[in-house]
Amino acid sequence: MRKLTYYIACSIDGFIGDPQGDATSMFAFLDPEYVGFMAAEYPETIPTQGREALGIDADNKHFDTVIQGLGSYQLALDIGVTSPYGHMREIVASRSLTESPDPNVELIADDLVGRVRELKAEDSPLGIWLCGGSIVAGELIEEIDELIIKTYPQVYGSGMPMFGAGFEPRDFELGAVRTFDNGVLVRTYTRKR
């Protein structure tokens, strides 16, 4: 069975963006060492246009499908990009967007959990990347098998939490930890089931 991995950037205090979801302040930490790590280890998580600009022509290493909410997808639409991850199958969870602006983008309005379970049952060596945002992560929290948290050395004080879900402790086991000279910390957690 394939894994659903929530691979997400956040502040030290656990916010993935400001109250409106903007996380552009984290871009200041995209130095050569850290970008090199992302390009080598998670090249598929770099948007297609960014891959082209950086000269990244790597196969997908971990994921062949990306799921995101409309808020995350809207960032691409706002700059005229209808398929930000054209090198993967793209799924956007949205109840308000009724027609896909791109043939590579599948819209899911209802039963996101059911669709994720179908994806997890597919025969593929690669997993599914949950890109964001908070509401979608909250809806899929019970389906998440792995967390890869890129913590940036900033404190937001308030903002959009990693999970838009009610209180209920869920246990994960710490795996790999990678630190960077710019202060970024990348931690991998596996779900204890």
Helices and strands, with pairings:
Elements: E1 4-11, E2 15-17, H1 32-41, H2 48-54, E3 63-69, H3 70-77, E4 89-93, E5 105-108, H4 112-121, E6 127-132, H5 134-139, E7 146-152, E8 160-161, E9 172-179, E10 185-191
Parallel strand pairs: 1-6, 1-7, 3-4, 3-6, 4-5
Antiparallel strand pairs: 2-8, 7-10, 9-10
Please give a structural write-up.
- This protein is an alpha/beta fold and about 190 residues long.
- The protein has a single domain (about 5-190), classed as Dihydrofolate Reductase, subunit A, CATH 3.40.430.10.
- Helices cover about 20% and strands about 30% of the residues.
- The chain is globular and about 40 Å long.
The beta-strand count equals 10
The major β-sheet equals: 8 strands, mixed
The shape, in one word, is globular
Strand order in space, largest sheet: 5-4-3-6-1-7-10-9
CATH 2nd-level architecture: 3-Layer(aba) Sandwich
Order of helices and strands: EEHHEHEEHEHEEEE
Strand content: 25-35%
> Can you count the helices?
5
Q: Give the rounded overall mean pLDDT.
A: 96
The CATH class assignment is Alpha Beta
Span of the ends, CA to CA? 14 Å
Task: Look at the helices and sheets and give the structural class.
Answer: alpha/beta
Q: Could you name the CATH homologous superfamily?
A: Dihydrofolate Reductase, subunit A
Task: Tell me the number of structural domains.
Answer: 1
